[in-house]
Amino acid sequence: MRRVLPRLLCALAVTAVLSPTVPGPAYAASGQLVLNGRVFTDPSGCYRNLNAPLSVQNRTRTVAFVHTTPDCTGPAQMVPAGQSMSAATGHSVHI
Q: Per the confidence metrics, is the pTM higher than 0.85?
């Protein structure tokens, strides 16, 4: 029994450390995201390499982020749920 307890505690510690790095369930925002007139129903993830200026209509209940880079990294402008915007330097959108 003495050997089992330390192993159990070690396993629990490793689980506690690693559990925040395991991704949660993927989900799509319900509604539509309209990018330069193109409609995406129940959007999810990164929409890359879009042409600037970028017109964004966020018809979902989730915030969309407009990035100046083509790969959804770097600084971003928020487009709240139900809002629209035009971004002169927008090249990707993450939702």
A: no
Q: Give the C-alpha separation, 57 to 7, whole Å.
A: 54
Q: What percentage of the chain reaches a pLDDT higher than 90? A: 64
Q: Are 28 and 64 in contact (CB under 8 A)?
A: no
* Nearest CA among 67, 70, 82 for reference residue 32: 82
Residue spans of beta strands (DSSP E) within the chain: 31-35, 38-41, 46-47, 54-60, 64-67, 76-79, 84-87, 92-94
Helix (H, G, I), strand (E, B) or coil at 64: strand
**Residue 66 contacts by C-beta under 8 Å, 6 or more apart in sequence?**
54, 56, 76, 77, 78, 79, 85, 87, 90, 92, 93
